[in-house]
TrEMBL record:
It comes from Arachis hypogaea (Peanut). GO terms for molecular function: pectinesterase activity. Belongs to the pectinesterase family. SUPFAM superfamilies: Pectin lyase-like. Gene3D superfamilies: Single-stranded right-handed beta-helix, Pectin lyase-like (2.160.20.10). GO terms for biological process: cell wall modification; pectin catabolic process. This is pectinesterase.
C-alpha cells in the first residue's frame, strides 16, 4: 500500500501533460468519432480477422478518428491487453462476462502489470470479463494484482466484470462510466483518482484464497483542487468471508459518494477510514441507502452530509459528462 501511494504523486502530473497534448493535437475528440463504425472480429477458432484481442487493437491505425468495433467471440483470452494512447475510438464487445474473458496473472507495479490497460480516450467495453488470476493460488499472502487500469478520459464499461483480490480496478484518471458492472476484490479493489460514476453495479468483497481478513472496497486519492471522486448510484454492495469498510482516503482529499444503494452486512460499522491525519476535507457521503450495512449510527464522526442540491451535482450525469460524450457512443 505504501509503495502504491508513493507512485501516485508524479502520475497526476503526467496525466495533465498527456491531456494537454491530446487537446492540442485533436486526437479523436468525441465529436470526431462519428463516422460509421468499422467492424473487425476476434475468435480463437481462426474464423475471424484476428485470433487475439491485442492483435486486433494493434491493427487500428495510429491517430484513429473513426469508431472501430472489435467483436470478440466467446472464449478465455489469456493475454495482457494494452490500448496505447494513439488508438482512441475503440469499442470492444464480447458475448458476456460469463463467456468472454481476458485473463492474465501478472502482479506488482499497477501502471504496467494490469491485465487490461487503457491509455487512450474514447474507449468502450461491453460484456467482457477482465481478470487477474495471480492471487487465485493460495500462497498465504495477497499482493497487488490489477485486472484493469483505466488511465484516460471518456471511458465507458457496460455489463463488464472485473475480478481480482487486491487492487482489482485501478480507476486512475479521467471521466469514466460503469453501468451494470460486477467488481470483485478484497483490498482497495477500486482505487485511484478518477472522476467516475458506477451505476446499477455490484461490488463484491472476497479475499479469494487469501487470508480471511477484513478488507476495503475503495481507496480514493483525489487531488485538493480536482473535481474527481467516485460515485456509486443504485449499486449493490455485498460480499462473503469477512467484513470490509466502504473506503479509505489515501490522502487528505478523498471523495466517495454512496447513494440509493443496498448495503449488506459485509460493511463494517465504522464504514470508513483515512491514511491521513487531517480528515476535514475528506468527503465520504452515504445518502438514501438500504440494507443492514446502511446503518450509519456507528460511522466515523467525520463523514459528510449533503443537501439535496449538493447531492444532485454528484448523482447527475453531468458529474462525468457535461458535453454529451456518452450520448455519442455508438449503439452496437
Amino acid at each position: 500500500m505504501q509503495e502504491k501511494k508513493k507512485m501516485q504523486v508524479p502520475k497526476f502530473f503526467f496525466f495533465k501533460v498527456s491531456m494537454l497534448i491530446i487537446g492540442l493535437t485533436s486526437v479523436c475528440k468525441c465529436e470526431d468519432c462519428r463516422k460509421p463504425p468499422k467492424t473487425i472480429t476476434v475468435s480463437q477458432s481462426g474464423n475471424a480477422n484476428f485470433k487475439t484481442v491485442q492483435s486486433a487493437i494493434d491493427s487500428v491505425p495510429s491517430g484513429n478518428s473513426q469508431w472501430v468495433h472489435i467483436q470478440i467471440s466467446p472464449g478465455v483470452y489469456r493475454e495482457k491487453v494494452v490500448i496505447e494512447s494513439d488508438k482512441p475510438c475503440i469499442y470492444l464487445k464480447g458475448g458476456g462476462g460469463g463467456s468472454t474473458s481476458i485473463e492474465w496473472n501478472d502482479h506488482g507495479n499497477a501502471h504496467f502489470t494490469a491485465t487490461f490497460n487503457i491509455k487512450a480516450s474514447n474507449i468502450v467495453a461491453n460484456a467482457i470479463a477482465f481478470k487477474n488470476t495471480y492471487n487465485t493460488v493460495d500462497t498465504g499472502k495477497v499482493v497487488q494484482a490489477v485486472a484493469a487500469r483505466v488511465h484516460e478520459d471518456k471511458i465507458a464499461f457496460y455489463d463488464c466484470q472485473f475480478i481480482g483480490v487486491q487492487d482489482t480496478l485501478f480507476d486512475s484518471y479521467g471521466r469514466h462510466y460503469y453501468k451494470g458492472c460486477y467488481i470483485q476484490g478484497g483490498v482497495d479493489f477500486i482505487f485511484g483518482s478518477a472522476q467516475s460514476m458506477f451505476e446499477g453495479s455490484t461490488l463484491s468483497f472476497s479475499m479469494g484464497l487469501g487470508p480471511k481478513v477484513d478488507g476495503v472496497f475503495t481507496a480514493n486519492e483525489r487531488e485538493e483542487d480536482d473535481n474527481s471522486g467516485y460515485v456509486f448510484k443504485n449499486c449493490n454492495i455485498t460480499g462473503t468471508g469477512g467484513k470490509a469498510i466502504l473506503g479509505r482516503s489515501l490522502n487528505a482529499y478523498g471523495r466517495v459518494i454512496v447513494a440509493n444503494s443496498v448495503l449488506s452486512d459485509v460493511v463494517r460499522p465504522e464504514g470508513w477510514e483515512s491514511l491521513h491525519h487531517n480528515v476535514l476535507k475528506i468527503t465520504f457521503v452515504e445518502e438514501g441507502n438500504a440494507g443492514p450495512g446502511a446503518n450509519t449510527s456507528h460511522r466515523v464522526p467525520w463523514t459528510k452530509h449533503l443537501s439535496a442540491s449538493g447531492l444532485h451535482q454528484f448523482l447527475d450525469m453531468s458529474f462525468i459528462d457535461k458535453e454529451g460524450w456518452i450520448a455519442n457512443i455508438p449503439s452496437l
